[in-house]
Amino acid sequence: MSRDLLLLLEPGFTDPAHPGERFVCPHGVPIEGLLASDPERVARLDVKRVPFARPRAVVIEVLDEAHQGLPALVLGDEHPFPDDAKTLGAQRFVNDPKRILELLAERHGFPKLH
């Protein structure tokens, strides 16, 4: 059995186009907040934070070069796949941040957004 894998950009990343500045991903911040709210539940899935710079080798290894946008939730087989999951080869994944938050609640028991 494989676990869900959550791929996020490392918080506080730098962008060569803006020297001296640090950034967070606006789509990843709500997910990071949810993860921080319940570390015990985080242990139920795999989380990898990857550097901003492309190519993003970790993402390419799991998905492919055309799907390096983050965040992404790569679905393991411990739970049924949702009907709206995207398929790429043998992988099923979701890259809509709101849907990722919903699936973290459904599949791992995190609180739901209201």
Could you describe the 3D structure shown?
With 114 residues, the chain is α+β, with helices and mostly antiparallel strands. It has one domain. The chain has helices spanning 29-37, 39-42, 57-62, 97-108; strands at 5-9, 13-14, 22-23, 46-50, 72-74, 86-88, 91-94. The strands form 2 sheets. The chain has a 5-stranded mixed beta sheet with strand order 4-1-5-7-6. Strands 2-3 form a two-stranded antiparallel sheet. Strand 2 and strand 3 form a beta hairpin.
Question: How is this fold's topology laid out?
Answer:
Blueprint: E1 5-9, E2 13-14, E3 22-23, H1 29-37, H2 39-42, E4 46-50, H3 57-62, E5 72-74, E6 86-88, E7 91-94, H4 97-108
Parallel strand pairs: 1-4
Antiparallel strand pairs: 1-5, 2-3, 5-7, 6-7
Brief overview, please?
The chain has helices at 29-37, 39-42, 57-62, 97-108, and strands at residues 5-9, 13-14, 22-23, 46-50, 72-74, 86-88, 91-94. It is an alpha+beta fold and 114 residues long.
Radius of gyration: 14 Å
Class per helix and strand makeup: alpha+beta
Could you state the order of secondary-structure elements as H and E? Answer: EEEHHEHEEEH
Count of alpha and pi helical runs: 4
- Classify the beta-strand content into a percent band: 15-25%
- Helical percentage: 25-40%
Keywords:
114 residues; alpha+beta; five-stranded mixed β-sheet; globular
